[in-house]
């Protein structure tokens, strides 16, 4: 293991342990409204609910792990939601969550609304798998045409191997570059784009081995729903930054 990986692993372990300890000390038995809070059934958003360009964040709100109205999400709530919904390690959520706070329009330092994430150039970038580029006017709503160009790579496959996912992403970026005269992808955004592919491979697959279940991935993108009724279960072991970094190397290699 390289020195950088060792440092990241140590930091990750310390952060996650600290978070888990604080959470267990601070969490109090819910008073009165616990049945409402524990209702994680899927409900599509109401027209007034705020949603983001991220299918997973939207799904977490559609299942009430995040506030259904998509407003005033704190970093702590985001970390808790990702842990409860898909068992993503707190340090992994922290990395993207800190970026999310940079988009905030809530007036508070530690909260954001889900549609704040639409802001181009912080996390949101060109060449998304299921959204159009900001140049075409809407960078956040699910675009069936865009997704179809990606999903065609997965047709007939029960599971999506890493190389297929990486090639689908690569082709989507090439198509975006060819069609958008203002196409721009900074190295930072290119890294986010790779990480997004890693995230769906990991959450719906076999950790750092990829092999995401095609039908589960489809439900996430097309319905912004966690595919519980299709058999998805939150991973028993926590999905860590180390797994993501391992996948990142494999996707980048393709
Ligand atoms: C919890 C904190 C998270 C935040 C704040 C966040 C935020 C975002 C944002 C702003 C985008 C738009 C990027 C773009 O395509 O322009 C995005 C895309 C994406 N996110 Fe998340 N995300 C989070 C966690 C996750 C997780 C846990 C997954 C796991 C599956 C995930 C999956 C994706 C995917 C697949 C995309 C690409 C969508 C596309 O290209 O069409 N995200 N995320």
Automatic annotation (TrEMBL):
Residue ranges with Basic and acidic residues bias: 37-52
Ranges that cross the membrane: none
A Pfam family per the record: Peroxidase_2
Keyword Metal-binding included in the entry's annotation: yes
Record key words, sorted: Heme, Iron, Metal-binding, Oxidoreductase, Peroxidase
InterPro entries: Chloroperoxidase, Chloroperoxidase-like_sf
An example molecular function term from Gene Ontology annotations: peroxidase activity
Gene3D superfamilies: Chloroperoxidase-like (1.10.489.10)
Superkingdom classification of source: Eukaryota
Keyword Coiled coil set for record: no
Needed co-factor(s): heme b
Family statement: Belongs to the chloroperoxidase family.
Protein name in UniProt: Aromatic peroxygenase
